Amino acid sequence: MILAARSVLTCGLLSLLLAACSSTCPPSWLDALPENREWHYAAGSCGLLGLEIRPERVALNRAARTLAERLDLDVQVQLTVTRLGERLVVEAYGAAGPNHALDALEFVESTRCGERVHVLLRLPAASARANDATPPADSAAPDAAR
Q1: Structure pTM?
Q2: Contact (Cβ atoms closer than 8 angstroms) between residue 89 and residue 104
Q3: 51-82 pLDDT per residue, tens
Q4: Is residue 118 a contact partner of residue 26, using CB atoms and an 8 Å limit?
Q5: pLDDT value at position 9?
Q6: CB atoms within 10 A of CB 129
Q7: Per the domain annotation, does 10 fall within a domain?
Q8: CA 64, CA 42: separation in Å to the nearest integer?
């Protein structure tokens, strides 16, 4: 009797665990990003690419590039995001040089679904506004000497 009850309990717990996993893969934010006036969100995904390339790193860079494009930031020369624990290090360069608009980028969540990794990042809206790239003063005005 105890063995049968333990078996039923184990099957029930396993069913709950599988249901919980299936409801989070893929994560809901992959199709519908969180909406919040104080944050800009972006998601990125990547499958297995090879032994030398970590899918999470590619997914981080894809999410950051998606956000940069949405905010019309110049990061065409280089955009690299590295995760150190829960902290992100961002290197962004545009035609005019370093672009610091994504410096406050934050890691929110990472989910592995089979062989794919999905990441969610966010950027404070105030940070994005404060760091809007403006052209240097000498290139903003037409050449007045002519």
Answers
A1: 0.71
A2: no
A3: 667 899 999 999 999 999 999 999 999 999 99
A4: yes
A5: 45
A6: 10
A7: no
A8: 7
Asked if the structure places residue 88 within a domain, the reply is yes
Domain hosting residue 126, numbered range: 27-132
CATH number at residue 119: 3.30.1660
Cβ neighbours of residue 76 closer than 8 Å, sequence gap 6 or more: 94, 95
Joined tokens for residue 127: 């940070």
For residue 43, tell me if it sits in a domain.
yes
Identity of residue 54: R
Q: Which helix (H) or strand (E) holds 93?
A: strand 87-94
Query: What residues have CB less than 8 Å from 79, skipping those under 6 apart?
Result: 61, 64, 65, 68, 90, 91, 92, 93, 102
Residues 39 and 125: beta-carbon distance below 8 Å: yes
Tokens of 96: 């005019």
Structural domain count, the chain: 1
Q: Are strands 106-113 and 97-98 parallel, antiparallel or unpaired?
A: unpaired
